Amino acid sequence: MGKIYDHLDSTLVNFIERQQVFFVGTAPLSPDGHINCSPKGLDTFVILDEKRVAYLDFVGSTAETIAHLRENGRIVLMFCAFDGTAKILRLHGHGRVLTEVHEEYAELRKRFQLPQPNRAIIEVELSRISDACGIGVPLFDYRDQRSGLLDWSEKKGEAGAKLYQATNNRESIDGLPAVLPRTIAEKD
Description:
single chain, eight-stranded antiparallel beta sheet, 8 strands
């Protein structure tokens, strides 16, 4: 039987910190738009306080999460136990896209260990925290994180990553604005 929590307590924090992967879900407002679900790994997730979390958003082939958050802010993060006791944890909330033009970006970026250039930090104010049994989730043995994304980022460098974003991440697959030119206008 699932439970709803009013904040991230130490038991939930401990559960989150043990997971090697989490999933991000967003959707546009249009009923004809594409729903997005993205897996995230590496050391990209931090808990800011009992009602706020954040993760590093790396350059990718699309920028659906950013586009959806710019349009409506809705987001859900899901953690699943793939070993040990079965459990699913969902963090629903309102997300913000923070880039280097935002005042709080530099200080928040220090909370993450990975040195590679990133596209943004996604900060989420939690509005609903709930768990479910997860007994249908299979057991998996964790071997390691893949290095491909970090290798690609390092090879591209910051300038190459920005060029890639400008070429490939300007809008979502549904045509919504996504990665904007790095100007003060991006704060809006």
